[in-house]
Fold each of these.
Amino acid sequence: MAKAFLVQVVLVAVVSVILALLLPHSFFEDWGWLSGPVAWLACAWGTSLILSLPTGRTILGAILVGIPSILFVVLGLHWLGALVAAVLFGAWCAYRPAEPTPA
């Protein structure tokens, strides 16, 4: 759990800083609703590559854990929502479904 959490947090932080340096604040006011989730998914894809996780399952987890963070955005607590999503993402990535036993 800790590895996926840490990699995701670092990637999100790096992408956030780069975008903040390259784009005006008004961009995020107008397009944050789209650029944020796209950046989150891109970072999850990067996490899957860095940690050799199954890409489809990792992206699915990123989508699912991003849904509860919408509540934090509505409450004006965007970064807390991102942290909660990262914790849930780490837990999702750590979970390994049981292998079916041969009959």
Amino acid sequence: MATILIADDAAFMRMKSANLIREMGHEVIEAADGVEAVELFKSARPDAVLMDITMPNKDGMEALREIVALDPSARVAMVTAMGQQQIVMEAIKSGAKDFVVKPFNPDRIQSVLWKLIG
């Protein structure tokens, strides 16, 4: 069992993702914005992070950079809406290991988690 941090400002998306990941047998912690995501990463040291790109207070790109600065081996996958390919490429260059496009299907989440945590 791994601990997965879900960072998304949409409560519905956090709930949907969390339920799916719990069904896979993992523990879930949740953040509603990038500030909270960085703080939870520092305190909980999750095995992997699913990070929405567009969030208030601190967007996913800023949070990604801070998390990678704290732990260069952090396993982060970005969650993005259709049409954000340029941002996804920037995220990969900034240390993200993979990405998921919303609306996602359960198989894609499972394959991303498998890639991140084995």
Amino acid sequence: MADLRDVTPEQTKERVIEELQKIYDPELPVDIYNLGLIYDVDCHKDEVSKLNKCKIIMTLTSATCSMSEVIVDLVKSIPSRMDGDLLDMDVELVFDPPWDQSKMSDEAKLAMGML
């Protein structure tokens, strides 16, 4: 078994993105990553534990989104699904810049019938 301290921040970022792509906005048929709700995923090594930590900056389709707590809680729970190679994850919810449809991936636009 590999030492979890050997997992690079880049590998952790890829796994976090895979997990984000499993979280769907309950009101739309698209995951939050391809929907464009994730503005940044920044991962780095913790200097003490040598395990990876990540910070996610994200938004919602609307500041009044009725499912905001559910979506944010699902994002915050990602470390529990990553077999211990992610020590901690900070989630920052922002509304500037506001989300709009231009932030969606082509895959998301296709799923929503916009292409």
